[in-house]
Write a structure and sequence with these properties.
The protein is of the alpha/beta class. The chain contains 17 helices and 14 strands. A 5-stranded mixed beta sheet has the order 3-4-5-6-7, covered by helices on one side. A hairpin with a 2-residue loop joins strand 10 and strand 11.
Length: about 500
């Protein structure tokens, strides 16, 4: 029997070197006794169990990584099992990834348990601050590194693969993490591992633990409490080393009453049909932020120029308000200002606006007699070199701007509205889907105002096929004639 004692630090590397040596000497896995630490003499062991020489070991890299991860499990038979699996893979007796192989299945399961234990160590180590070494805490120079210590009890011997995480995350302080088997020390940027002395003392409580408990109690959400799931993620075996754990039983007991108070504070929600009417209504649902409700179109424009309801105002040049006569019988709503509209401060003056003017003239629609506006009042774009490329507004941005669009419709009171494009349709009807299918159809707002759905002129400009562009332009012209027939 060959006895091999592996060190507690560098276990996987030492095991790998030993397996290579054993394979070269032809020692069978059954003839090896593995242990951690100094080897115990076996008076009945045969000292020479050598058989025929073995070829060089060649196994897939993923297999070696998984096997060496499993070596950090607490299973006493892990070294022998890994030794046998390496030889089987090297000889081609099994293929890596075959979970029907009992040895592979066990190794994969143990590697998964090790990774979970490493995750738990990362999550549940709690440092306690120590006073500066060799002097009192006060009157210390600013370059003295703060010192911390922690005690942790992992299920498996995972300290070696787990501590590089702490060195990377807490590289600006000195710390010690002690466990029953190994102690990790990170001093002045240098990480070392050593066996833990039997008389290792746990660090004393520090002044920040009460602060941490206060924070934990305030972020604890009683309405989302699932005790079994919480204990699955934070097993009770870790609780005696967690400062917040002493609060958990009382937090669990108080959770139903706290959740009931939270529900009472929320008030009641509107019925689904009421909420739908509110979403789809063209009238504003809440007052403008920081301003009184405007009574005229001039007041509305003045308030809109100071709008900060959504982030689009941060990059746009200016707010582009609607324009036209206050007694317009027709209201035409586009998507949002483009690059030229953003610079000029007027709607529909760019290429899409020029196409609209041309087709409107052909359809007999006088632009000067309609109220022309956009669903969103600020230009949304992506910079690309010196150009600003148009981006479609999000539903949230459309929703924020519905305040202004609703006020425009309320002050003008048009007989009909033309919605050009998906954003306009969403702002007016609550849905911007299936525009091609809905094009040319008339829908109604809750107050009965008819809304005709059509394409936006910019969609016509983007058509690569000339025949399709011509056909859709003709449809757009017919839609303009149709909306004119709805106003007296």
């Amino acid at each position: 029997m060959v006895e091999i004692a592996l060190p507690a630090v560098g276990t996987a590397a030492a095991w790998r070197d030993a397996v290579r040596r054993l394979a070269a000497e032809g020692v069978a896995p059954e003839a090896v006794r593995w242990s951690l630490g100094p080897a115990a003499p076996d008076l009945f062991a045969a000292q020479d169990a050598r058989t025929r020489p073995e070829p060089a070991l060649k196994i897939p890299r993923p297999a070696l990584a998984e096997i060496e991860t499993a070596l950090h499990h607490s299973d006493p038979g892990r070294f022998t099992r890994a030794h046998m699996l390496v030889l089987a893979l090297s000889r081609g007796e099994t293929r890596w990834g075959d979970r029907s192989d009992p040895a592979q299945h066990r190794v994969m399961a143990e590697a998964k348990a090790v990774r979970r234990d490493i995750h738990k160590m990362h999550a549940f180590v709690r440092f306690r601050e120590l006073p500066p070494e060799g002097a009192q805490a006060e009157n210390q120079p600013s370059e003295v590194r703060r010192r911390f210590a922690a005690w942790f009890e992992p299920t498996h011997p995972v300290v070696e693969p787990a501590v590089p995480f702490f060195a990377k995350r807490f590289g600006d302080m000195d710390w010690v993490i002690a466990t029953p088997l190994l102690t990790a020390r990170f001093i002045a940027g240098h990480l070392t591992l050593s066996e833990t002395p039997a008389d290792q003392a746990r660090p004393p409580e520090d002044g920040t633990e009460r602060l941490w408990q206060t924070y934990y109690a305030n972020i604890f959400n009683p309405a989302r409490l699932m005790t079994r799931a919480m204990q699955s993620e934070m097993p009770k075996k870790y609780w005696h080393n967690l400062p917040e754990a002493e609060l958990i039983p009382q937090l669990i007991r108080d959770a139903p009453a706290r959740a009931a108070r939270m529900a009472a504070d929320l008030g009641s929600l509107p019925a689904p049909e009421t909420a739908a009417r509110q979403r789809n209504s063209r009238l504003p649902q809440r007052p403008a932020i920081g301003s009184a409700r405007p009574q005229t179109l001039e007041d509305l424009a003045a308030q809109a120029r100071a709008c900060t309801r959504c982030p689009l105002h941060c990059n746009a040049t200016q707010t582009v308000c609607g324009e036209g006569p206050a007694d317009a019988r027709l209201m035409i709503v586009g998507e949002q200002p483009g690059d030229q509209e953003d610079l000029a401060g007027r709607p529909f003056v760019g290429p899409a606006g020029q196409l609209f003017d041309r087709v409107a003239t052909e359809a007999g629609l006088d632009r000067s007699r309609v109220w022309l506006t956009n669903a969103v009042k600020h230009f949304k774009f992506t910079p690309r070199g010196k150009r600003r490329i148009h981006q479609r507004p999000s539903s949230s941005e459309i929703e924020q701007c519905r305040w202004w669009l609703g006020l425009e419709a309320e002050l003008i009171r048009p007989q009909a509205i033309l919605a050009m494009g998906a954003s306009a349709a969403e702002a007016l009807t609550g849905s911007g889907a299936n525009i091609l299918r809905r094009r040319g159809s008339t829908e109604s707002l809750p107050d009965g105002t008819p809304v005709l759905i059509t394409l936006h002129p910019s969609a016509l400009l983007r058509q690569p096929d000339a025949e399709t562009a011509r056909s859709q332009t003709e449809d757009f012209r017919n839609d303009l004639r149709k909306i004119l027939s709805l106003v007296s």
